[in-house]
Amino acid sequence: MHPVLMLVGLILLNGEAMLVYKTAPGTKNYKKVLHLVLQAFALALGVTGIWTAYKFRNGKGISGFYSLHSWLGLACILLFGIQWLAGLASFWYPRGGRIRRHTLLPWHAFLGLYIYGLAVAAAETGFLERLTFLQASRTIARDSLETLV
């Protein structure tokens, strides 16, 4: 369940939310609400995905946070949450001020792209980690079709 939740949340929904300003029809406020809602769903799925991985590992007595994948994923979800809260406070707070929003917008966009790249890196290292475990246990062969994906 962890891979599906993380992939749908932090890659699919996050990517769609970033593109909503360019692709969705409607007013600027409609696009802003859609961006906020999609990012909120992405964050909720990401937190649920991390919770499922933690619960699975804890139930089997497997230690967590030992690999690059787990640390990249933790950094990604923490930065995503901070970015979401900062965006909510900056762009939805009525007394935020136009100048402050104008100053923060390029940083918000840059950090959003950075976090998206971090999510892709965490997903790739997770897939590689899973493949390594399957090959080490001889569940799949080194030259099987699954390794090409």
TrEMBL record:
GO terms for cellular component: membrane. It is found in: Membrane. InterPro entries: CYB561/CYBRD1-like (IPR043205), Cyt_b561/ferric_Rdtase_TM (IPR006593). CDD domains: Cyt_b561_ACYB-1_like (cd08766). Its cofactor is heme b. Its main location: membrane. It holds the Pfam family Cytochrom_B561. It comes from the Eukaryota. Keywords: Electron transport, Heme, Iron, Membrane, Metal-binding, Signal, Transmembrane, Transmembrane helix, Transport. It is a multi-pass membrane protein. Residues 1-17 form the signal peptide. The chain crosses the membrane at residues 33-54, 66-93, 105-128. Residues 1-149 form the Cytochrome b561 domain. GO terms for molecular function: metal ion binding; oxidoreductase activity. This is Cytochrome b561 domain-containing protein. It comes from Taxus chinensis. The lineage of its organism: Eukaryota, Viridiplantae, Streptophyta, Embryophyta, Tracheophyta.
